[in-house]
Structure formats: C-alpha cells, structure tokens
Amino acid sequence: MSDAPPEVRTAATRQEFAVCATALAAAFADDPLMTFLWPDAHRRHAALPRYFTATLRHEHGRIGVVDYLADHTGRPIAVAAWDGPDRGGPMAGLARTLRAAPRTLTALGGRVGAGLDVRRRLDAHEPSAPHWTLVNLGVTPAAQRRGLARILLDHRLAAVDAHGHPAHLVCTRAENVALYQRFGFTVSDEFALADGTPLWSMDRPPAHR
C-alpha cells in the first residue's frame, strides 16, 4: 500500500459538482452557519445537497475552483470551494446569482430572508483588493482526522502564492481558527449572525515571491 497522499482533483463536470455537493452537505450538516440558515435538522439535511450543488455549479465553479479528494471508489470525501480574484463586475455577479436562484431559493424555502442577511454580513468582510476566498472546506465525518483538509489547503495555497495573491475566509467554528492560523491566516475581525452565532473573518497576505 502506498503512503503517498491522495491526488487533489478539480471538479469540472456537472456530475463532479453534484457528488462534491453531497460530500459538503455531509460535512456541514451541523455547521453553526448552516444551522442558523435551517434551524430544523430534517429540513437542513434535505436542503444542503441542493444548495451546494447550485453554488458549486453556478458560482464557485465559474469564478474559482472546486478541489476535492476522493476515496478508493472515486467518491469525494473532502472538498474545498474557492472564489478567484477575477469575479467580473456587478452584472457578472448578478448573472451568476440568477442562474443559481431556482435551486438556492428552493433550498432556502422560507429562510430566504435569513440567507440574504448572511450574505450581506459575509460580503461586508470581503476584502476590496483582488484576492482568493476559501468559501467552503469540508471533510465527510467518516474521513475526518486524516489531514485531508491540510492537503487541500496546501494544494491551493501553493497556487495562490505562486501568483502573489492574498486570501480570505470566514471561519464558522472556533476550534478551526487554529488550523487556518497554521496556514498563515490571521483573524481580522470577529462578528456574528443575527442570532449571535460568532464568525471569524480571517485574511492571509500575499506570499513573497
């Protein structure tokens, strides 16, 4: 058996986005931000695959990358969705939102207002200069504690550093702040959702080339 780390793949097809969404749904089933959006666990677990499929396919897969690690069957078990620095202007953003809207609105159901409020709070902490944003990083429960998140971070940040770009993320769990700090992110602000759920805005300067 080889001790080599698993190969990082980048999703490019509709099927890859769909199975990556399933992995993220499992990873984020009890995430504080997702729990705020869907307080009812049954509705949350039903909505997350649809929500992630829409955002990966119509947003992050178009303006960034969706990296993943797979098990021996090829099924994704760890996924990282990034938005890149070239996101276009307001009209481009509106077009992406409209393409994703049928699925995201269905997933949100009666929580559309909560979803818009979350989006507004996250956007308020997005840097103005061109940068990469780590939007989602998740490992399925059965595959956790194997260093898979670190493999995905190492892979994409090497490319970010090669181009001298800064990076940004919003951490949704206090216990994960230390992980991101090991990769050069620092907390720039702590803020909260409408119900008081804490979030941490974290930024990473461009690497010296």
Question: What do these coordinates show?
Answer:
The chain has 209 residues and is α+β, with helices and mostly antiparallel strands. The chain has a single domain (9-204), classed as Gcn5-related N-acetyltransferase (GNAT) (Aminopeptidase), CATH 3.40.630.30. Helix content is 45%, strand content 21%. The protein contains seven helices and seven strands; from the N terminus they run βαααββααβαβαββ. Strands 1-2-3-4-5-7-6 form a seven-stranded mixed beta sheet, with helices on both faces. Helix 1 crosses helix 3. The protein is globular. The protein starts with 8 loop residues before the first strand and ends in a 5-residue tail after the last strand.
What is this structure's SSE topology?
Blueprint: E1 9-10, H1 14-27, H2 32-37, H3 41-63, E2 64-70, E3 76-83, H4 90-108, H5 112-123, E4 132-139, H6 148-162, E5 167-171, H7 177-181, E6 186-192, E7 198-204
Parallel strand pairs: 4-5
Antiparallel strand pairs: 1-2, 2-3, 3-4, 5-7, 6-7
